[in-house]
Every structure is written in C-alpha cells, then in structure tokens.
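Write out the 3D structure for:
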Amino acid sequence: MTHLYLGANARRFVFVFAAFAAITTSLLFDSQRSEAQKFTKEITPELVGTITGRVFQDYNSNGTYNTAAGLNSIDTGVAGVTITAYDAAGVAQGFTASAANGTYSLNATGTGPYRLEFTTIPAGYSPSARSTDSVQGGAATNAGSTEQFVSNGNTADVNLALTRAEEYCQDNPTLIVSRFAQGAQNGIYAANAVLYDFPYNSGTTYTDTTVANYDGPTAHTLTTQASAIGTIYSLAYNRSANRIYAASFFKKHSGFGPGADGILNNADDPSAIYLIDPATSAVTSTISVPGVTTNSHDVTDYADDNGNTGWDAAAKTGIGGIDLSDDNSVLYVMNMQDRRLYALNSTTGAQIGATTATAITTGVTMATPNGTNGGSCIANNRRPFAVKYYRGSVYIGVVCTGETGDDDDDLRGYIFQVNPGTMAITAAPVFVFDLDYARGEADPGEDAEWQQWRTTISSSFAYPQALLSDIEFEGGNLIIGLRDRVGDQSLDAGPDGKRTAGDTLRACGIFGSWTLESNGRCGTPVTGSAPQTTGEGPGGGEFYHNDDFCLTPNGGNYHDEVSWGSLLYLPGRQHVVTTLLDPISRPVSNGATFDGGFRYWNNSTGNAERAYRIYNGLGGVGQPDFGKSNGLGSLTAMCTPAPIEIGNRIWNDNDNDGAQDAGETPLAGVTVRLYQGSTLAGTAITDANGEYYFVSSTVADPNTSDNLGRVNGGILRNTAYQVRLDDPANFLSGGPLSGRSLTVPNQSAQAGDDDSSDSDATLAVNPAGSLAAGTFPVVSLTTAGAGANNHTFDIGFRLAPSAAPVTAEGRVLTASGNGIRNVRVLLIEADGTTHTAVTGTFGYYRFDSIRAGQTALIDVSAKRFTFSVPTRVVNLLDNLAGIDFYADQP
C-alpha cells in the first residue's frame, strides 16, 4: 500500500486543502515549470572546455585543502583516482586520472551539462567530508562529494577530499608521555604521576627567549601514579575504546608496577600492560605479555639495583615497543626477553596466532647496508625493540649490538617487515644502515660515537649504546629513533651516573628503496637545510640538526646529541616530535639543565622549530626524576575516531529511469530525518541543490532548518540508521514532494558507478519512532568503520504520470473490528476535486475513476463515532485497497 497517515490534528488541514488545492496545485505546477525552465536555461549546452580540480588526502577531515605551514596538518594529493564526465544522456564524454599531486584536467567532449564521478579510489581511502555543495565546483580549497554536477566543460576547482581513518587526527590533539620515578614504586615517589598529557601545540617557538613559555601548560589532566602502574616506557592509544596502553619497562633504579593484582610487593610484575581510562586516570584492566618473567631489580636496594646484573638487563628483559593495528583490535608487543613479537587481543590480552620471534635471532639474514647478504651479526647480538604498525604491516627495529664475537664495524640498525596475518617476518630486512658515523661529544671530553653493547658497568661517563627504539613513516620516508641504552642502565649522577646521547635519523625514498640521509641532506628532490660537513651525522652532517645543548648563549656545545629516542609523527603534520634532554634553546640555556621535554623538527628543513619542557630536575640519587638520563619514555597521541558524514541529494527524475542525469532538477525544501532505531538523531532540509547531509557533532544542532543535520554525539560506527522523509508537510499541497512519487530504486543499468547515481529509497509502513504514522520513503543503511563517509544516499522522485484511472477502497470499523454503515468518506484530489462515498453493509466504501499518479487525501467523519486518525494521505500510483479507518469506540 502507498498511503500516508495523518494524526487527528490533520483534520483541520482538510478543508483548507479542499478550498485551495486547485489554485495551489496550479501555482505549484506553474512554479515547477518555471523552475525547470530556469534550470534548463542555466544548463544550456556550452562549448567544449576543460574541467579541473584536485583529489587530496584530508588529514583532519574538514573537507578543506589545508596548505598553511604550522602545527596543523598539510593536505597532500592522491594519485590514481578516475574522474569521468557523463552528459545528460548518461553517455561518458571523457575521463582522466589524478596525478601524483592530486590534480587533474579533463577535456569533456559533447555538450554539457555533465555529471562527474570520482571512482577507483585507492584501497584504504574513503571519501572525506565536504566543504561546499556538489554543483559547479567551488573555491580552490573546497571539496564536494564523489558525484558532482557542472553546467559545462569550463569549470575549475571540482575537488574531492579523501581520508584514511587510521591517519586521521583532529587539530591540536592531546599527547601523552611516560615519565619515570626513581626507586620502589610504593616508596617516597609512589604518588608521583608517571603519565603526562599535554596539547600538541604546547610550549613555544624554539627561538623564544622567555623560559616560562617553554613550560606551558604546567597543568596536566592525567594523574596515574607510580604505585598504580610503575615504570612505563611504551604507550599506545586505542581511539575506538578510549583507552591508553602503558607497558612495563625495565629501567635500572626504577621498579615495576603491581601487575594484575594491583598490590605492590617484592613480586612486582614485569609482564604487565596496563589499560587506563584517560577520563579518570584509573587502571581498568591489565594484559600480561607471554614469556616476560625476569625481574632483575634488587627490590631491597634500588640505589645499586643489582650492579652489573641490573646493568645488563636493560633492553634485554621486559617489554619493548608496542603498537595497535589500524582497527585497534590487535596489540603488537615486543618481548625483549625471548626476542619475540606477540599479537594480543587488545581487549582480553589473549594471544592471536603464532609469534615471529625466533626469526629475529635465527631466521633472518642480517644483510649489510649495501644489500649484500651474509652480514656478520651473530644471533646473540640481535636485539629488537621498536614496533610500528603501518598500512597493513608491522615493522620491527633491530640493532646488531656487537657485544660478543663482533666488533664496532658490525654495529648496524635493521628494519624488518612482519605479515600481521601469518606473523611471518621478512627473511631479509627492508632497510639497513650503519651506526659507525661520527657524532661529536655526549659531554665535554666524552665521545658520542656508538659503542658495542657491554654486559658490565662502563667506567666512562658517556658510553652510548644504540637501541632502535622507534620508527615513523612520513610521506613514504622513514624517521628512526635511536635511544642510548646507557640512560636506562644508570642514573644521571651517582656511582653509575652516565650521560646519554641518542639520535634521530631520516631515510628518504619509497617503500623498500630508502636512502639514509647524508651530510644533512636527504632524498630526491633534495631536502634539508642543516649546516654541512660538521663532523656529526651520516656523511658528515645531520638532517635533524639543533639536537644539541650549550651552557651559555652563543657558546660551544655542551652536549652534541640530546635525543632520547622516542618519536611522534602525526600523518600530514609538518613536524616530528622527539623526547630529549634539556629541550630549551640556546638563547636561554642558562638554568635550563637536567630537564626533560621535546623538540619539534621540521621534516622538510630539519630545523628545530618548537620546544616544550615537562620537568626541570637534577636526577641524582634520591631525586624523583632521572634528569638527563632518559627521563621520559615514549609518546602517543589521543586522536579521536574519524567522524562520519552521510547523505547527499534528492532530485526529480525527469525521465523516470532511476538514475541522476546531468540537468535533472534538484528538489529543495524537503525535510529529511535521520533515525537510529526509533530515536530521532538529526533533521536537515535540502538546499537549492537538493543536497542534505548528516554530520557528526559534539553539540545539539543549533539550526534544524538548514541542510546540515548535526548529530550530537556523532554518527556511530557500524550502526543501523534510517534516512526518512516522514514529515507529512513534504507531501501536502505546496510541499516540495506534492504530486510526486518515488522513482524506481537501486538501478544498475546506467553508465558509471551505480550507487552514486541511483535512488535508494523504498516505502516503509509506520517506521518506528516517526513523528507521524504512515507509509514513507525510507533509506535503510548501516554505517561502516570510523571515517567511512558515504555520500551516495540519494532519493529520486517523479511527477505523477498520465495513466488509466485507479480505484481506492477500504472499510470503516469500530475499535473492536465491526463495520460501520452510513459513514461519509471524502477523497480530495490534488487539484481540489472532491469525491464523496458512504459506507455500506459491513462498513465498505470505494472510489472509482480517480486520476492515477497523484497525491490525495481521504477523510472520514460520523455522527456517533470519533476517529483518532480521521485523515490519510495516499499516493495513487495504482489501485489501492485496505485503506481502513478505526473508530475510537468499540
């Protein structure tokens, strides 16, 4: 049945409708003809020309092509997207593909108007938000939907924004870093916070001369204490569950946390990964990593902490790097004790499948940097740490330590690729680099060159031992974090006090074909603006320079290498953030020693451009912090799930073929509602282009009369919704859908992408929660994952066709189901013509010879009975039966 039900209040519209229907309908049809004529004039065929635009990755999902330098994302082009122009007959009149920078130029043949479709979107990408309508292009920074309309071939800035959900991050996200507290974690520093949160745009420019500016903000929301989680290095953030993962870490002089039982004692747990609610700072659950059993601390004396045993345990026991899969379901963890990579369920901690581990020690070829297999790194000297999940693969960082059987010439870094499905590791590394480059001084008179790992405490104040602690991918390039192991074997002062000297390196190129920076430059075309031939860095210079510290303004360097090996790179951003000692810049270096914080390095120039200080401490025995001795752990960003936007267009299907053809008229003013189950989630009204969109929001919609329906709390992932046209006013005389009926849905005969150009609505009877009873056009859909915007939910209508007359019939019944005789029933056509029927035996009525294809009203009234629903709106597309009315009385 194709009728709409109106409530009791609709009765008052009946006589108004009857009185003015003829005039209104005439005016409406005249208006429609005028509108169609106007539209036809606007799309009068033009000369052939060029359609241009850009396809770009929209890192912050705002639909705008962002290019400004600064702390927020800079969008980049996406290659290989096909743009096809279809004319008004649906015939393809040309196509092209976006270039490496995302731009395209399409010479359309034939005559306009054209429907443009963007297809062959690369795997991993989906449409992002829009910043303009999908008609006639926009500004250079605007983006429309995957289907857009232009009147002729001379149209510029027909752009499309794409997103990758795992690479989305909002502007100025919250970052988290781990900080170490000395001694037993139930000791005098038990209440110290060991996780710190801060905004991405914290601190100040690197050349600022005001010390206080480097400390802002000083307040932090996270308050998770040492007694709750102990010593933490690696962090990850599950944006789907809003949980922080904090992995236990062996750092000499700093005890483990309590583990799953939450009780600190002499059996503290080296295997624990703590799940923390950032809203409360509380531990919500604990995951135990298989095979992590060794606790080399002397829990009775953290000042000495087992001497050489504690020294040698650093970076050989406990947990190393961790990272989450793109969908946040799997946590990948490096066990440094058995040198195995584990895949764990991110909720339960259950192990998933096999492990890769023995491959690191026996199953891989430790190739030399020039690609020749058979490097001399023996199994005992292969030490893994870094873990990075990137675009469907896991990458692990390994160093050849040279500690036994090898020499300084064998010190190298390796990156291997792991298949997350099989957990198989590549037989050969995907990248190898030497660690024998010059590095200046770690401290005056103390060389910063990388040394062989050693099992006993060194007598030197600086004894740098490379640990490949972090990996980031930036625009196809590699950024490599090297942590100085000695900073986790010692205090900043005291019997085993040492000075640390980590590093940050860059390798440029494409996957599997990277070239390490050399003399401060990297890649083709060459990037970097560092001073060259300084005697520090691969090839004699450092790409990421300014990684030093001096005591007096304009004085000589006091430390040539200050990195602590932790990196944070947010896709699309201009900078990589690193942890380091003494982050404050040279002009204000006095009084800025023994600090821990961050610098932000520009990935194009290598310049340090911003800095932020977390703490200012001394770091000796009895101090809460570790001063210059690796005082901070890893970094992670609390990027929220990519928002979802759905919608698109309601139009008049002039040729009734179920496809949106160029030149067909949009339908403005249609009220569109979005429901989650029976709950109204948002309201929008189509604009002059017939477009409507529902967008995620954190506030209630301030304007429900525009074409953006803002869904407070966001459009949910993997959730069923319905788009409904369930406002009866849409269909009344003068309404935007009066006299129209749905076109044929889900057609696949048209050229191009079917789902982009078809109509998706079907009729549904009394959908749950609708504000009026009836049969309404409904699009049922289920959202996908984060960032899965979908602009293909279109609804087409056609004007009433000329056809043979139809009949409309039904019954008038008591509440108990008995027919009522002699009840007057009115049928009012769209032009105001009124027909009267009287119910006969058993309450039956019937109207014959009614013009087909129109919207009409049927109204019932009786002296002895009342009706809660006395009026119904019906679409007379065919003969209708069962149009029944029930009285309130039995």
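The helical segments are 11-42, 226-229, 307-313, 358-363, 754-757.
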